[in-house]
Amino acid sequence: MRLRASLALIELLALTTSVGCKTTARAAPTHHGSASNATPSALTPLLAPRAAGRFSCRGGTCRQEQPRLPDSGEWRCADRGHVVWCAGGEPAAGVVKGPPTPAYRCGARWGSSGERVCLDEHPDYPEGQPENLRCSFEQEQGSTRVCKVGEPWRGPALSAGAVPACWLDRDCPSGTCDRGACTCQADADCRSGRCRGGVCAEVAP
Amino acid sequence: MKTAAIFGLALVSGCYVPTKKLTVRVELPAELASRVKDVTVLPRIAELRRATAGGVLALELKREAGKVRLALPGACPLVIDTREISSSAPTRFSMQPLFDVGPSERVVGLGQSFEMRAVPGCAEARATRATFAVTGGAAVEGVTLAEHGCRLQARTLATPPAKAAAHGVVPVSAHEQRKLRTEISFRVELVGGANFERRLGISAVARSSGLSDVGFAHPVLVSGAGWTLRDKPPESLAVLRPVGALFELLPDRIGRYRLSDALGKQLSIQSGRYDQMPLDCGRSGCHAEIARSVVDSPMTRVLESDLGGCHALTDPACASACHATGEPGTPDGGFTHVAAELGLPALPAEHDDLPRALRRLGGVGCMACHGPTKIPEPSQRYKLMQNDVCAVCHDAPPRYGHVQALESSRMGHADSSPATRSDPACARCHTGWGALGRPAPPDAAEASGITCATCHDVHPHGAHQKAADTTPAEVPSHGGLLRAFALPATLASPPASFHGVSKVCISCHAPSSNTLRPEASAAAIVAGLGGLEPETGAPLTAASPHAAAAKGCLSCHDSGPDELVLGKSHGFRASEQTCGRCHANVPRRDASIAERARTLLQRLDPLHSAGDVGKPWHASYTVLLPTPQQTRALRDVLLVLEDPAADVHHPSYARALLDAAERLAPRAKP
């Protein structure tokens, strides 16, 4: 009798546990998107259209016809050491201005009136290892990013928080522009008043 | 009690085990984008959550689900093995169509062979019946079907568009293109009896503004005799192909193509991609004022303002061809081409969600009218002012009939007489370029009448700023874009309704000065202004019964061809029905006013009134009468004669003018 009762209890426990497990997951939605209306916020960012074109690869060279740029304005860009930096920003004529591209951090170009400089420290790459790629921009006819398999640029990583400020060396008080940021030896070398890791950095929060 | 505690503990522990999840992004083929909500996930229990937008499905799946199958009628099933996805970041997948039939629209050229082929995308496609069929539109010849209906071959006819008479690049309006577009359907009979149909279009021509600055891979039609291709970009294999009485050039490389005709005339055609053109037109020192003026233009914002409307990338009935830049069906770097390059299944509902490249090509921007390469050579710039530029979109009747309505009006043919183009005094009101003070086009240019650009300025700047006193209530639905012509001296203080949209009419439809020859006088008669007391020279005026009509001239002159839906008002016709909007009993026309005016003219100037038959009075009258009093009397008579509708516009003022002239007119000899 006691054994029977124990077995029944064990069965009941197993059943209860399994019922509890099943209720953890939501019921499958209908096929007309009702689930999406319930709590879409986590998935919504996934619905955004691609911000940039696909890479088209042939013979060790990949080309991206519509690369990610800071906004809908006019930009000239460069790519070195897995950092993209762009200068310009003049509004495109006859175009409805849109929001800035989130991947870029932008600031005023030092030594220039009206231009901006933007940094993308995590640019996109063709499938595979970005470590083996050297990328550049072709800007004769529109903007195309070209990545080639080869020895990557060897140099120090750009210091986190580097302030986007320069396109040419002459933009910088120190006389050297490294991937859109001015190099420095002391805080006094920077208009931002802060030198970190050898480049002018954003003012500390 | 003890047992209950054990149950509770078991329940809590059971619930505590979290379900591991992963997220995937699935892009649908563009032609199935509108059915994204119909995607089914099997087993259903594997799906935790979903969100859909613009042909994209975002799914949250159970990681332990294993192989999950996504299905949608018309698409190849997609199997995702959740256990093989190691990344915690969202993983991207694409569903492929059952059959890849290529782009929805293609522009192939006149008299050109083309092939449509359905390539199965998966094993499931082989189990279905599918076939192409020509279903409507322009006829094609030599239609053959092969591979069980999955391959269609045919040839477009070599029928030229209607405006092929012009010398040089042949303009092709949206209307002309549609007449030369063949509709093809691709029908798939799915297992289970359901059907799926895709509608495709083959156009024999690309739309053209007639400018020699053309989109890459747009077939360009050239009219004239003996054209030869003299020069082309390096590596180009393009040829100049005779098509009936025309020639067709298909630019296969970006760059310049030089042609010369039998008489040695040169034509330089520049071909480029829209997405490769810098949009730095507003750079200081260049066109900064124009760039500022278009920021809020309805042309600039036409895509943004209606992005949630009908803008499917694959439906030819939708407006992505005219609310954006470029020609669908060609690899020209235009909006639909770049959208395909970006793998965009559908347009997002919000403009801010458009990728940068598409924001630059959305709306009717600089390149939509000026072309994707360089400013035309000076001798060709007059073409920018012709209706052909606007007709690329605004000539698509019956829905969009603006150009058709204008060309049906007398204004559309105002310079059909060569004299109106050669004499600057005539050209001032009989030609668009004359009204705007632009250089005359070459002698060989065709008559174009008063064109869209005569009254409308898509980027107001300089002397013709947008009318500052045009209030929203007076502005038509297109948001204005009307030029601000100065009112003529004779109508310096017209009724308030003349300060709105009517301003563009009045500069030509009122006498320009108080000289003997009052040109087209309709606005003066309507306003009750412009006459002179013959004896004293004092202004002869009258209150205007039509002054209360809020849109001035356009209150009545707002009709055109009946079949048109939008733009009919650009026919500027008035009718008895128009009068009936205000007059319960429409007054009858009174021919006696014009008859009396002609009799008075004969009495005032018997010699002149006998001659110059067939010309308007203002084009034939140059003789002053012996006294200033008689001259002023004659002017009052001519004011009435110059307005063929004086009896409608303001009959009592017309009679008053004639009464005044009567006092100076010698009695007719018995």
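The two ends of chain A are 72 Å apart (CA to CA).
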